[in-house]
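Checked the freezer inventory, then went back to the computational side. Two predictions to log before the end of the day. The first one is the construct we discussed on Monday; recording sequence and tokens without edits.
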Amino acid sequence: MTESTVLGLIPARGGSKGVPRKNIRELAGIPLIAHSIQAARDATAIDSVVVSTDDEEIAEVAESHGARVPFMRPSELATDEAPTAPVITHALETLHEAGEAYDVFVLLQPTSPLRTATHIDEAYSLYEESDADSVISVYPTYDTRWERTPKGAKKLNYTDAAKRRQDRDPEYVINGAIYVTDVEQFLQTEETITGTTKMYEMTERESVDIDTPFDLWLAEQILTEWETHD
């Protein structure tokens, strides 16, 4: 297999309702986005780390921590309703116009500060070794899920038997920390999860996603308190 050129892409818009300005809020002494930038820069799999943002302050913070911000994202791609796929397409096409072509991109949400360079490299190795078109990061769960129906609550999983938690086979939840995707496949389908997909497993603790003030507090405890006592 020939060596691929890999883009590490970090999407970070300025607007955020749950935690205002969360991408540059301090977490364990540095801005939230800096955790993802550092992980991407330390990962041997990634050739270039680019932040896609519509916000000048985020751009300045990103560059000060070693990421590239070679373009600003259009405002129409930075709304609450804007899906991720057009953001990726815009980044790939803009970079291509500037003479940068990539075979693979690794999408790294800045809201996953506990994802490390080791996680990125392991996920990319899985992508390469398995000949997959995409890899998603997940964590295992053994929880039962239910839905409301006119006839009452209905169990959605683990319906075959009332097994103890420790006896169940795990199900997996996408944690949003890492998406490794073949560029050609993405441009054909406009899907980050496309073709043959493999799962890269992380722990639930490593999968904390910053969406609320509680998530930010929890990540702070893990990074500053839990890690020192492990």
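The second is the one RB wanted added to the comparison set:
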Amino acid sequence: MFDKIQLPYAFDALEPYIDAETVETHYSKHLQKYVDNLNSLIKGYEQYTEGKSLDQLLANVNELPEEIRQGVIDQGGGVSNHNLYFALLSPTPKKAPEGKLLDEIHNTFGDLDTLKTEVSNAAIGQFGSGYGFLVKDKDGKLSVRNTLNQNSPAMNGVVPILTIDVWEHAYYLKYKNLRADYVKNIWNLIDWEKVEGLYLNYTI
């Protein structure tokens, strides 16, 4: 059985950048539906899922039976991507990375502002629903990706460490069609301490 993360802040804690109604609906309705659908889908297939993290399932999705494979991509990706998204947001975020992550950002992008621009452009430029991601490979090298729908970068052998959700339900109540404004403002909430932790310690 898989579950959504425990939200580490109140629904209204991310205002004024993300409104309370959006956070509550996004977390309690949309994410919960992905959790429910995923757990229903994998019932009876425990031999394929037991002892594995969701990202491990997604990284090895071709090993799953064909009849549940696309469902795990859609519903499992929905849980994994949302859990990462909500975990990275904070009303009192660390504003910039340090240490090894900052060094790698400088090596890859030149500076933090350039990284933000590239991730923002990936998110804003995603046609339809999806995400912009910062990912690391097995050697700790960074790159920027965007994915369609609930596809996870884990399916391509890389580890997502930062994401911006650009499904309309993530921003439309407050920002309407102004996706770029939402993406610009979300950097006020991204906690670089969480991103650093994933960069240094998380593998699939």
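For RB: Strands lie at 130-136, 142-148, 159-165. The chain is about 50% helix and 10% strand. Let me know if you want it refolded.
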